Each structure stands twice: as structure tokens, then as C-alpha cells.
């Protein structure tokens, strides 16, 4: 069997069986486990499968093969349960006296309602949806970068934004990403958005990425940063376990939120780190 044919059949098998281990693939195709691992690395880089610790899972549809990401306002109602859980978990990493950056997105927006417990907090953002949520929060100092409005994302971009970011420093950055791939890293299609995200990452001491399960396994046009550039990723239990294992294998702290983490309002109220409005 030719190498190309074997890899094509590997992809088909992984998709058909919703995943496969290195041992299973080695036995099926009568090649060494080392050969299988090399095949999986190549297939993962091409975005055809999700490589994980000890095996592979089916890929999520690549952005380069599918439709562009929906505008922010149209995404707001998608995966809302996951995003709320992720936002709550992210807010738990914010401490009194922090200066944080938050980029635009529907998942990062879910953090804001859970920041009532934090005192002496400063938030730097280039996103108008984040600004609108922070407006009633009189205990939070909000710093808004200038820039040119990207209408579909309600984000401020361009030279004015970059000038501001070059002169700002933050303890923590909380950011979203439309495409996350264990080998390729974080990527996006809009070049000015990519430049803004890169500058935010450079201005913060640590970066946390908030992402629902639909963001994984995607490769967009331009890389924002390699996967090891961030400290942690917060996602939901809907994300493939092999993907989580692969990220952890790269040294990334992956926080997987479960539905019972919030359960109901009374459970959240019992958590000293969480306060609901």
C-alpha cells in the first residue's frame, strides 16, 4: 500500500469509528507504531485529523475548507451554555488589583457578569461588546483602545489600536480564538485582528484562551501564535478528550469545565469566588 493511500484510509477509519489508537492503526495497516505516529503528525498538520496522546480523533471542519466565521452578533446565541460555563471559570482567575485585557468575542463576554467579586480591577479592551457590558460596572476601571471599527466583530483595530497596546501592560489576557490546532496553534482570517491579538499577548504577562468545542481542529489563514505561547485554555467537556490530552502533552494547562461546575444559581452563589448579578 502506498503511503498516501494508507494515510487516506487512516483518515476514513478515524472518522468512521470516531477515533482510533496508535496500536489499532498499527495493527490495521500492518506498519510500526512509529510509522503511524509520523502519519498522524502529518495528517494533523494538514488539518485532516485531531492528533492526541496515544491516537487520533476526527477533525472539526477546517475554516479554510468551510464558510467564514459568522459575525459576532450572529454567533451570540450559539453554544451559549458552554460559553457561560467557560466565562465563569475564566472569571475565577481574576484577582483583586489585577490589570487584565479582554479581546472581543462572544465567549470572553461571558466573563463580565462574574467580575463583581473583584476589587480594584482594571480592564483594557478593544471590543465594543465588552465595553457595553462593563459600562454599568462602576467598580471596574475600563480602558478602551482607539482604532477603526471592524463592524462584524465590534472590535477596534488598526494603527491607533496598536499604538495604544504598545504602551499598555497587563497582568493577564483573556482572549478568544476562532481556530485552534494542536500543531498549527491559534489562527484567524483577518490580518488586522491577528496583529491586535499578537500585541495583546505581548503586553500581558500570561494568556488564557477561552474556547468552546467548535474552535478546535481549525486552521485559519494566518497564525496568531504557536500553541505553547499561552498558559492555559479553558474549554468544555464537549471538546475531544484526545485533543485535550494532546494540548496537555504540549505543556498547556487545559481547564475542562463540566455542567455541574455551575449547576444552578444557588450552587454558584455558594462558591466564594463567584458572585452573580
What is the 3D form?
Answer: elongated
Radius of gyration: 20 Å
What is the level-2 CATH architecture name of the largest domain? Answer: 3-Layer(aba) Sandwich
Low-confidence stretches: 61-67, 261-277
Largest sheet: 7 strands, parallel
How far the N terminus sits from the C terminus, by CA atoms, comes to 62 Å
Into which percent range does the helicity of residues fall?
A: 25-40%
The succession of helices and strands, N to C, reads HEHHEEHHEEHEEEHEEEHEEEHEH
Classify the fold: give the CATH topology of the largest domain: Rossmann fold
SSE-based structural type: alpha/beta
Per DSSP, the total helix count is 10
What is the count of structural domains?
Answer: 2
What percent of residues are in strands?
A: 15-25%
Number of strand segments: 15
Q: What is the topology, as strand order, of the major beta sheet?
A: 6-5-4-9-12-14-15
- Reading off the top of the CATH hierarchy, the class of the largest domain is best stated as Alpha Beta
The chain-level mean pLDDT equals: 84
Amino acid at each position: 500500500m502506498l503511503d498516501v493511500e494508507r494515510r487516506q484510509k487512516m483518515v476514513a477509519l478515524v472518522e468512521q469509528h470516531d477515533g482510533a489508537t496508535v496500536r489499532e492503526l498499527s495493527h490495521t495497516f500492518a506498519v510500526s507504531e512509529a510509522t503511524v505516529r509520523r502519519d498522524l503528525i502529518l495528517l494533523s498538520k494538514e488539518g485532516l485529523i485531531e492528533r492526541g496522546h496515544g491516537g487520533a480523533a476526527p477533525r472539526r471542519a477546517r475554516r479554510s475548507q468551510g464558510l467564514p466565521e459568522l459575525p459576532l452578533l450572529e454567533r451570540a446565541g450559539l453554544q451559549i451554555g458552554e460559553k457561560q460555563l467557560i466565562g465563569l471559570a475564566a472569571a475565577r482567575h481574576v484577582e483583586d488589583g489585577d490589570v487584565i485585557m479582554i479581546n472581543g468575542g462572544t465567549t470572553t463576554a461571558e466573563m463580565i457578569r462574574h467580575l463583581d467579586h473583584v476589587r480594584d480591577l482594571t480592564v483594557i479592551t478593544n471590543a465594543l461588546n465588552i465595553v457595553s457590558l462593563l459600562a454599568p460596572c462602576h467598580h471596574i476601571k475600563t480602558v478602551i483602545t482607539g482604532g477603526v471599527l471592524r463592524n462584524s466583530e465590534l472590535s477596534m483595530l488598526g494603527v491607533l489600536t496598536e499604538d495604544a497596546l504598545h504602551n499598555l501592560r497587563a497582568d493577564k489576557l483573556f482572549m478568544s480564538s476562532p481556530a485552534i490546532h494542536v500543531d498549527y496553534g491559534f489562527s484567524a482570517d483577518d490580518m488586522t485582528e491577528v496583529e491586535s491579538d499578537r500585541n495583546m499577548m505581548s503586553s500581558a504577562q500570561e494568556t488564557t484562551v477561552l474556547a468552546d468545542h467548535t474552535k478546535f481542529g481549525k486552521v485559519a489563514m494566518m497564525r496568531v501564535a504557536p500553541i505553547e505561547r499561552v498558559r492555559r485554555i479553558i474549554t468544555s467537556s464537549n471538546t475531544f478528550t484526545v485533543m485535550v490530552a494532546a494540548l496537555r502533552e504540549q505543556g498547556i494547562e487545559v481547564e475542562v469545565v463540566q455542567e455541574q461546575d455551575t449547576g444552578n444559581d444557588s450552587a454558584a452563589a455558594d462558591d466564594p469566588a463567584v458572585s452573580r448579578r
